[in-house]
Amino acid sequence: MRQGGGSMIRWLLAAALAVAPATVIAKAPSASIEARLQRVADELAIQRILVDYAAFLDGRDYASYAGLFTPDGEWTNAVGSHKGRDAIRQMLEGTLGPAGAPNRSNYHIITNPRVDLDGDRATATSRYLFVMRGPDGSPVPSLAGVYHDELVRQDGKWLIKRRVADDIMPTPEEWRKIIASQQPAK
Amino acid sequence: MAEDHRLAATGEMRYAAVALAVLAALALPAYAVAQPKLPVDQQLRRVEDELAIRRLLVDYAWTQDARDFPAYAALFARNGEWVNGTTIHKGPDDILKMLVGIYGQPQPGFVNRDSFHITTNIEIDIDGDRATARSRHLLLTRGPDGRPRPTLAGRYEDQLIREDGKWKFLRRVDTPVMPTAEEWGKMMRARAPAK
């Protein structure tokens, strides 16, 4: 009886040992806990940058906005390219006016983030929808596009190395027409 | 006598209720502590799974908008179902055929500058190798002056499965909320001759 119980336990142990490694291999990723946690933290940190970008832009906080880029970071769209934090700040001041001005007339909605990590480098794609104050004050979806980002980790911090803003709609010509038609009404 | 009996019964019930409350109070903290105490790798796993599923929901919109039908179909499990109203397509091959039927084959290098979906309000519940998710979608299309116009809004309700180590749609139910299917049909017919 004791013998039987012992062999039963041994059999169960053997079965468990035989099954366990297969299950572990099939289910758990092979990377260490630390490496896996790092990836999760990296993905969330980059998702935060995508949203911070809009918050700083809409809040006219140009210093923080430029600080999201590497010192040699580049911002590019169909119209032009600006390289380096100073150049990026100047571009914002030129197109949006002085830093810190209150802004209740437009904002960016950031959605559909895709982040792909590769060690200390990453790429990200996200959508933006620029919403403007309409003639009666109601928010009007006005411009939509895609951001394509290259990011790097520098001194433990993720930064944008290059951001390409691709305006999907309206086209630049249509946009000029819309802005021109809004000028006299103001 | 009957009155007394009823009173006694109420008294007993009250006693039982108090006893239950005490038991619950004693048991709760233990339960509350025991519940989230998964081993670290399993806790991490849940976070990884949640991020992977969020990515799946977003990839659905990206691949659909890019008309990348093979990539879209590959987001479904081998027996994955695509459901919209009474329409059901089962398995990646069937889903791929449906997409080509709706949109036609895109030109090589096609970039969609006329419409896109935004996916929001994602809620995910994970249970081992299965999960459920809910989200909202909003389709924006090019308006007459080129500006993006909200055109169609709805809900996704998903059943997900981990298949060969990757999260896939086992069943995605797309429920248009506004306009209704009838209203949508009317709008499409009204737009067709104008184009």
- Quote the average pLDDT of chain B: 87
User: Uncertain spans of chain B, ≥5 residues at pLDDT below 50?
Assistant: none
Helix-strand pattern of chain B, N to C? HHHEEHEEEEH
Principal-axes shape call of chain A:
globular
What class would the helix/strand composition of chain A place it in? alpha+beta
Classification by helices and strands of chain B: alpha+beta
Beta-strand fraction estimate of chain B = 25-35%
In terms of DSSP E residues, the strand content of chain A is: 35-45%
Task: Tell me the distance between the termini of chain B.
Answer: 87 Å
Principal-axis shape of chain B: globular
Query: How does the major sheet of chain B shape up?
Result: 6 strands, mixed
Over all CA atoms, what is the radius of gyration of chain B?
25 Å
What is the number of E strands of chain A?
6
The H-and-E topology of chain A, N to C, reads as HHHEEHEEEEH
Helical content band of chain A:
40-55%
Which percent bin holds the helix content of chain B? Answer: 40-55%
Oligomeric composition of the shown chains: heterodimer
Instruction: Look at the structure and give the mean pLDDT of chain A.
Output: 87
Total count of helical runs of at least 4 residues of chain B: 5
Uncertain segments of chain A are 1-6, 13-27
The Rg value of chain A, from CA coordinates, equals 26 Å
